[in-house]
Amino acid sequence: MKICLTGFTGTGKSTLARRLAAHYGLAYVSGGNVLKKLIGGEEALRDPGWWEREGGKRAMELRKRDPSFDRRVDEELIRLAMEKGDVVLDSWTMAYLLEADDKVAIFLKADLGVRAERVARRDRTSVEEAKEAIIRKDAETKRLYLSLYGFRLGEDLSPFNLVLDTTRLSADETFDVVRRFIDYWFNVRLGREGDLDDKEE
Questions:
Q1: Counted domains in the chain
Q2: What DSSP state is assigned to residue 150?
Q3: pTM across the whole model
């Protein structure tokens, strides 16, 4: 089982990915963390708001000048997915790039204002500063992947099996909806009924 989660900053993607990994007893792999460590080292890896701050801005400029960073990360994610077999991939690209019969792809979206409020709480900054950082990051990320791979992130949703708006959902509600969908998706594929085995205490 390969669960690919995609969504812009503040939609709840990483929180959901870690919780699903714990629930199903799967490995959790974050494309953002792999890239952060590659560019910014361990210090960047420890900072959840790094992408929205100066370090993240410099990293984006570096990525635009040298797309090999992103290609290396994506190649590593594909390698890990095939090596581990069962994995949750927290990534903007894997829904588009990973080819696997046992894959389910989920896209999370949310209103900009709600996303900014969530990021502001996480990073202890103002909502306005968070909103400006999100708008800039969204635009640059879209341009980067359009140039690198030719897909329109957030617009081309054809690779996804579920698109969920988390604007009015709590983290618990988002998890419950997605968990039920994943159970349904793989049970239909496996031809059995009931929840998949969960390992969450």
A1: 1
A2: S
A3: 0.83
